[in-house]
Amino acid sequence: MTTKLNLREWATYLGVIRRRWIWVAAVFFPVSAAVAVTVFFLPRSFEADALILIERREPLMRKIPGGYDFDQYLLTLRQMMMSETNLRAIASKADMDLGKNEKALRGLVEKLQKTVSFRNKGRDLFEVRVSGDTAQEAYVLAGTVSSHLVETSLAIRRREAGVAYDFIQHQLENFRNKLQEAEERLKFFKAEHVEEMPGTENTNLSRLQQTKTDLQAVQLQVRELAEKRTQLKEQIETEEPMILATTDSAPAGIRTQQMEAALAQALLTYTEKHPDVARLKAEIAAAKAAMAKGGKGAPTGGTGTTAANPIFQQLRASLAAVEADLAAAQAREAALNARIGDYRRKTVSIPEAEQKYRQIVRDVDVTAGIYSNLLGKLEDARIQKEVEIKDEGISLKIMDPAKLPLHPAKPNRPLIILIGVLAALGLGGAIAVLRELLDRSFRSRQEVEEELHLSVIGAIPEISTPSEDRRSAQRLRWAVVGTSAYLCVLAGVAGVELARQSGIFR
Amino acid sequence: MSKIEEALAKIQSKPRPGGGSESLPRVDLPAAMNVDREAFVERRIVTAVFESGPAVEEYKKLRTRVLAWLRAAEGNVVMLASAGGKEGKSLTAVNLAVSVARELHQTALLIDADLRRPHLHQLLDVKGQPGLSDFLMGKGDLSGLFHSTGIPKLTLVPAGTPTARSPELLASQRMGDFLKEVRRRYQDRIVILDAPPVLPATDAVILANHADGIVFVVRAGGSAREDVQQAVRQFDPRKVIGVALNGAIDTGHYSAYGYHYVTSPVMAGVG
Ligand SMILES: Nc1ncnc2c1ncn2[C@@H]1O[C@H](COP(=O)(O)OP(=O)(O)OP(=O)(O)O)[C@@H](O)[C@H]1O
Ligand SMILES: [Mg+2]
After folding, report:
1. Whether residue A351 sits in one domain with residue A206
2. C-alpha to C-alpha distance for A130 and A49, rounded to whole angstroms
3. Do A206 and A286 have their domain in common?
4. Going by CA atoms, what residue is nearest to atom 4 of ligand 1?
5. Does one domain contain both A317 and A228?
6. Subunit contact A465:B216, Cβ cutoff 8 A
7. A163 CB-near residues (< 8 Å, 6+ apart)
8. Which pLDDT tens digits describe chain A residue by residue (506 residues)?
9. Cα–Cα distance measured from residue A72 to residue A474, given in angstroms and rounded to the nearest whole number
């Protein structure tokens, strides 16, 4: 039912076109001719393509998270390729071959952005296609793009691994130096603060204590000596430095008495063993012995003459000895005092030094930790680097390099001519139908009866006369001949182009 | 005729969807036939030459309907009108007149009332003068107006000297008297008036007063619908017999007929 209706519709349209063929012709011939002529003035564009194989090492691929998606990989590759820097690199590489200038280079980058296409050719194969204004341009560009692709896809990964390795190595060196420095500092610090080092404080303290005890003893001695000196000085003042010698014996007896008194005096402060006591005892003994000899006629000097007071002399000597001892004791006291100050200072500065020490130690520890960590990383990077350099993982290989295109890819003249012919025909038909639709006249009995509300009492068909028939037959003949000839010309042109495309005229 | 020509002729003979055409193959007529067959065919007066055929059948149908109407209306004057020019009034008028004349007991009088651009005398190859306009202007008398056409029982009153004063002439008392006289003298005749187009001038409307019935000629692909409607509204609806669709497509109709030509002389059976 519907098909019948459709057929009828089509018949109606065909009828319209047949009735208004003049419009079809009036549109078809100029339009198709215009298309056929213009097609030879359209700018030509050439295409060159290279076939690239993606090689992959399965074991490594398995390590890639998310698995391996060829289309995704292609997409990534394309994106990587389409980056401004890459395109510039390609353009400038190609540019040298094409002998263009800087301005053209920028144009080339833009062109690449528009024309480079990646196509999945199945099973790890893909095609890189580039178009250019000339065959040479397309060829050079496709060649450059494909080789650049292969080079950079490796180089980028290699460089990535290499950069990582270099970086880690550089860091490692850096930290090794730091570690050495820190250790050096630690050593130096330790050497410098050996007594302040933690653990030495007890020795210092005991030494301080010892010194303090020593100091007390020395101070006591100094006080005793000072006392003795004062006594001696007082004694010396009471004694006459010179005495009058009357008889030998008398003075001798007096002297012995005096010495015995001194001895008693000395024995008050000193023990029997004291040198002063001993000396006095020896002197008394000597004086007694001399007295016993002088009685028997030994000449003596003392007859009315003055002589040096021996006690005085004795006292002076003693004073000198005491003063010397005092000076020595005082010197010792000063030394001990200095030492105590030193010890005291050392004991106080220990926490400060310790803090400094701990910091240095921490530095060393941290640096050492980083260093060993980096050491591990460097090993990883080294392995990665080696893997990449050995081209494991994904690598690209040009299977089919770009070839110089022999014919332009665009415009596809035969196709455009064919499309032009069909489009012109369609346009003509459409215009005929449009005119029919815009035609406000009556065309059928039904229309008249519906709109005029009058009955159609006769529907007279077109009446053609024999001469008209002859003329129209002739016209049809010419139309057929002319249209055939015209179509033959178009087909010939398209055929020549098609043959040129398929390389028959190579 | 080459094979291609034959084929082309065949294609050409098929009616176009826009309006079926009628091929007119050569038919050998008896030597006694007193008509210039070729000339009629070239002028598309198919009713004078063929007994049958799509166009002839339609003219016959038109005749039948018109005659029935006139009989019912007790009149004998029919006018052909159209909204615009070149819609086929004159051709339809002639073919209708010939069909009427070919009826057994009918006689046709064809009057060319298109006084501005007279055409019927050429179509029927008849002298154009003296004609209606001359008579209406007072030149000559009634008897000189009637011209025989070579087709039995068909008489033509040509339009005469072309004139721009047609409305006043057609509205004149003389025109009324003329038609009265015609009706009176030829009561058994069917009078067919070929009018000028309706919209450009008032002639047709004036003329319609003298007619008993009006056949509206509409050319398929001709005047716009609105124009036709406007033209139709100018007339008394009671007088409008119907529409003669000229150059029409009517597929259903067409298949019912086909090309069956009667090769007998036109005037067969006419005494
Ligand atoms: N059915 C038809 N098939 C083919 N041609 C036709 C048909 N009807 C009319 N014609 C042609 O169209 C033209 C105009 O026809 P015709 O003179 O009859 O129209 P008209 O309405 O009388 O015109 P006008 O308004 O000028 O008097 C003529 O050449 C005629 O042969
Ligand atoms: Mg006319």
Report:
1. yes
2. 6
3. yes
4. A463
5. yes
6. no
7. none
8. 455 667 888 888 888 888 888 999 999 999 999 999 998 898 888 999 899 887 766 544 444 444 456 677 677 777 777 877 778 888 777 776 666 677 777 777 888 888 888 888 877 788 989 888 888 888 988 888 888 888 776 655 665 666 677 777 888 888 888 888 888 888 888 888 776 666 666 677 778 888 888 888 888 888 888 888 888 888 788 777 776 655 444 566 666 777 777 777 777 777 777 777 777 788 777 777 777 665 444 444 444 566 777 778 888 888 888 888 889 889 989 988 888 888 887 777 667 777 788 888 888 888 888 888 888 888 877 776 666 555 455 677 888 888 888 888 888 888 999 999 999 999 999 999 999 889 889 988 888 999 999 999 999 998 988 898 899 899 999 999 999 999 999 999 999 988 887 776 65
9. 66
Chain A: give the shortest CA distance to residue B111, in Å: 21
Cα–Cα distance measured from residue B59 to residue B100, given in angstroms and rounded to the nearest whole number: 9
HEC letters along A158-170: HHHHHHHHHHHHH
Task: Based on the fold, state whether residues A323 and A280 are members of the same structural domain.
Answer: yes
Nearest-neighbour CA in chain B from A15: distance (Å): 5
Q: Are A390 and A425 part of one and the same domain?
A: no
Are B249 and A15 in contact (CB < 8 Å)?
Answer: yes
Same domain? For A212 and A337 the reply is: yes
Say if the Cβ atoms of A459 and B24 lie within 8 Å: no
> Does residue A189 belong to any structural domain of this protein?
no
The verdict on residue A406 lying in a domain is no
Q: Decide: residue B21, CB within 10 A, 0-12 exposed, 13-18 middle, 19+ buried.
A: buried
Of A447, A451, A461, Cβ closest to residue B54? A461
Considering the four listed CATH numbers 1.20.1260.10, 3.30.360.10, 3.40.30.10, 3.40.50.300, the one that applies to the domain covering B3-268 is 3.40.50.300
A387/A291 same-domain check: no
Examine residue A165 and state whether it is found in any structural domain, yes or no.
yes
pTM: 0.59
- Domain with A26 in it: 19-42+412-458+469-502
Secondary structure, 3-state, A172-184: HHHHHHHHHHHHH
Q: For residue A46, give the DSSP letter.
A: E
Cα within 13 Å of Cα(B90), Cβ side: 22
Round to whole Å and give the CA distance between B14 and A14: 14
- In chain A, what is the greatest distance between 2 CA atoms, to the nearest angstrom? 218
- A187, part of any domain: no
Interface check for B94 against chain A (CB to CB < 8 A): the answer is no
Q: How many domains does chain A fold into?
A: 3
How is chain B split into domains, by residue range? 3-268
| Pair of tokens at residue A125 | 């194969």
Angle between helices A249-269 and A275-294 (to 10 degrees): 160
What is the rounded CA–CA span in Å between residue A331 and residue B156?
A: 180
